[in-house]
Design a protein that fits this description.
about 20% strand, Rossmann fold, 2 domains, alpha/beta, 10 strands
C-alpha cells in the first residue's frame, strides 16, 4: 500500500522533492502542503524550492526553520519585506500584526500594496501574497494594534518577534513585552536614506538605549520620508538576524547597533550596551 513516506521517496529527484509532487501528495493523501513538507524534511529530502538555500542551510536546518514561529509586528514598508523573505526562507509559521489598511502614500515602497489593494487590510494582503508564493507556510493575519495589554496574547507561542513598526512608543512597549515573555526582539527602523538594526535579548535594554533621548512623536521618519529601497535593505538585515537566531548560527547584533547610510554607502556597527565588544 502506498504511504506518504514511500510516495515522497519514490518521487524525489535525488534529494529534492519537486513542487508538483508536493501538490499531488497533498491531494492524494488529503493533507496540507505544510504536512507534506514536514514529512519530506523529516526524511532528509529537501523541497526543491529551497535548493538554493542548501549551501548555507542544511536539510535539518530547513526543518528547524519550518518548525519555527515568528511574529512580525507591522506590515508596511519594513514588515512587507520581512514577511515575504521569511516565507521564502521557509519559516513555517508567521504571525503578522497590523491594524491598518493600504493608502495611496504606501504605494512607493510597501511590498504588498497596489492600486487594487487600496483600503484593503495589510494583513489580508500579506496572507494572500504568502499563499501565492509559499502555500506551505502558515501565515496568521491579526488586524489589530499591538499594545502592552494584548501583547502577551499576540506573541504567545512565537520564538521571537520582529519590529517593523513606525511608532517609537509602541516599539518600546514591544521591547518590554518581549522581555516579559523571555523572547528575543529583532528591531529595525528606517528614515530617508538611513536605517538601523539591533537584536535585543531578554534582559537587555537595547531598544531603550537607542531611544533614550526620545520624548514624543514618531521620529525622523516623518520628516525624512522613505524611498522604495531603504525598507528592503533594513528588512533583509532583520531577516538575516532572525535566521541566525532560529538556527543558533553566527553572531547576532546583541548589544550592538548596525547603522546604515545608503547615501554614502556606509554601515557602522557600534556598541549600545556595556559588556559587548565593539565591531567596525
Amino acid at each position: 500500500m502506498d504511504t506518504l513516506p514511500i510516495f515522497v521517496r519514490d518521487h524525489a529527484d535525488g534529494q529534492l522533492f519537486p513542487w508538483k509532487y508536493q501538490v499531488e501528495a497533498s491531494k492524494r493523501f488529503g493533507l496540507t502542503l505544510a504536512q507534506i513538507e514536514e514529512v519530506a524534511l523529516e526524511r532528509g529530502i529537501l523541497p526543491a524550492r529551497y535548493q538554493r538555500n542548501r549551501t548555507i542551510i542544511s536539510v535539518s536546518d530547513q526543518l528547524t526553520l519550518f518548525r519555527s514561529s515568528v511574529a512580525v509586528i507591522g506590515c508596511g514598508g519594513l514588515g512587507g519585506y520581512v514577511v515575504e523573505e521569511l516565507a521564502r526562507l521557509g519559516v513555517g509559521k508567521i504571525v503578522v500584526i497590523d491594524p491598518d489598511v493600504f493608502e495611496e502614500h504606501n504605494l512607493n515602497r510597501q511590498l504588498f500594496s497596489s492600486p487594487e489593494n487600496l483600503d484593503t487590510a495589510k494583513v489580508e494582503a500579506a496572507a494572500r501574497r504568502i499563499g501565492e508564493i509559499n502555500p506551505a507556510v502558515t501565515l496568521v493575519p491579526v488586524q489589530t494594534a499591538f499594545s502592552p495589554e494584548n501583547g502577551a496574547e499576540l506573541l504567545a507561542g512565537c520564538q521571537l518577534a520582529v519590529d517593523a513598526l513606525d511608532s517609537i512608543q509602541v516599539r518600546l512597549e514591544l521591547a518590554e513585552v518581549c522581555t516579559t515573555l523571555n523572547i528575543p526582539l529583532v528591531h529595525g527602523a528606517i528614515a530617508g536614506w538611513f536605517g538601523h538594526v539591533t537584536t535585543q535579548f531578554p534582559g537587555d535594554d537595547s531598544v531603550q538605549a537607542i531611544y533614550r533621548s526620545w520624548t514624543s512623536g514618531k521620529g525622523v521618519e516623518q520628516s525624512l520620508g522613505n524611498p522604495s529601497f531603504t525598507p528592503a535593505v533594513v528588512a533583509s538585515l532583520e531577516v538575516a538576524e532572525v535566521c541566525k537566531l532560529l538556527l543558533g548560527r553566527g553572531t547576532p547584533l546583541r548589544g550592538r547597533q548596525a547603522i546604515i547610510d545608503l547615501l554614502s554607502m556606509e554601515m557602522h556597527v557600534i556598541n549600545i550596551l556595556e559588556g559587548h565588544k565593539e565591531t567596525e
